[in-house]
Amino acid sequence: MRMIKEQTVYQLSFMANWFPVNCYFVEEEESLTLIDAALSFSKNAILKAAAQIGKPINRIIITHAHTDHMGALDGLKASLPHAEILLPQRELKLLNGDSSLEPDEGDLPVKGGVPRNNKTQPDVLLKEGDMVGSLIAIEAPGHTPGMMAFIDKRNHILIAADALQTKGGIAVAGDVRWRFPFPALATWDKERAIATAEKLVSFNPSVIGVGHGDFLYEPEALKRAILQAKKRVEG
User: Fold this and answer.
1) What helix, strand, coil percent values describe the chain, rounded to 5?
2) What are the residues facing 5 on neighbouring strands?
3) Phi–psi pair at 78, nearest 5 degrees
4) Cα 144–Cα 84–Cα 26 angle in degrees, nearest 5
5) Which residues contact 104 (CB under 8 A, 6 or more apart)?
6) Which of 30, 114, 28, 111 lies closest to 71 in space, CA to CA?
7) Residue 143 to residue 199: CA distance in whole angstroms
8) Sign of CA dihedral 61, 66, 70, 74
9) Domain count, the chain
10) Residue 228 CA: distances (Å) to CA of 86, 173, 176, 186, 225
11) Is 210 helix (H, G, I), strand (E, B) or coil?
12) CATH code at position 101
């Protein structure tokens, strides 16, 4: 595992050089909030990183219910029974293995790894604008119907989850980069993903953390990725 600190945010990257799967710590005054739970084997490394920082993990947020973002959730909850589990409200169906759509969501199939044997249930279901410590919850559908991003109000660092990737090239969810196509292939709705990316730009992020790839230190590059994604969708 590789850990990189950017102000109040720590990026923990598993298999960073060839198939990066990221989760994040957001440091508060007396505790840590973990955003996403990476892979099933990631639990011990996550706990070790928290011990190295020297603060307890009081909250675990899952941005969306794909298996590469919640793989260690059951193990972490067993080790941290008092940690609060938070999930976007719309993702509860996916968390429980139900990939059916709501009436206003069209008929495109939900893609990607949906959990089948998850034991941990959320304590809190999040909606747009909710505060989690220093984080503001942002509805960010497209990759999945209910995914959320989170921005730190102290410094405008944005955790975009799979709304954006940087591994294989900067891209909006659904816009394939063949050097690393997997996030795009697991994306539900390309047009909604573009709308989400435009929404995230409006928050003027200073730095962007993604689900797969390095921090993005040039947020203007997101605007260029949006234009490219639009051209592909429009044909």
Assistant:
1) 25, 25, 45
2) 10
3) -65, -35
4) 75
5) none
6) 114
7) 14
8) positive
9) 1
10) 33, 12, 11, 19, 5
11) strand
12) 3.60.15.10
List the chain pLDDT tens, one digit each, 235 residues: 999 999 999 999 999 999 999 999 999 999 999 999 999 999 999 999 999 999 999 999 999 999 999 999 999 999 999 999 999 999 999 999 999 999 999 999 999 998 888 999 999 999 999 999 999 999 999 999 999 999 999 999 999 999 999 999 999 999 999 999 999 999 999 999 999 999 999 999 999 999 999 999 998 899 999 999 999 888 7
Say how far apart CA 22 and CA 150 lie, in whole Å: 14
Q: Position of tokens 């497209």? A: 142
Structure token pair of residue 171: 């891209």
Token pair, residue 58, equals 């009081």
Q: Which domain holds residue 220?
A: 2-234
Tokens matching residue 155:
């410094």
What separation, in Å, do the N-terminal and C-terminal C-alpha atoms of the chain show? Answer: 39
| 180 touches 16 (CB < 8 A) | no
Give the three-class secondary structure for 194. Answer: helix
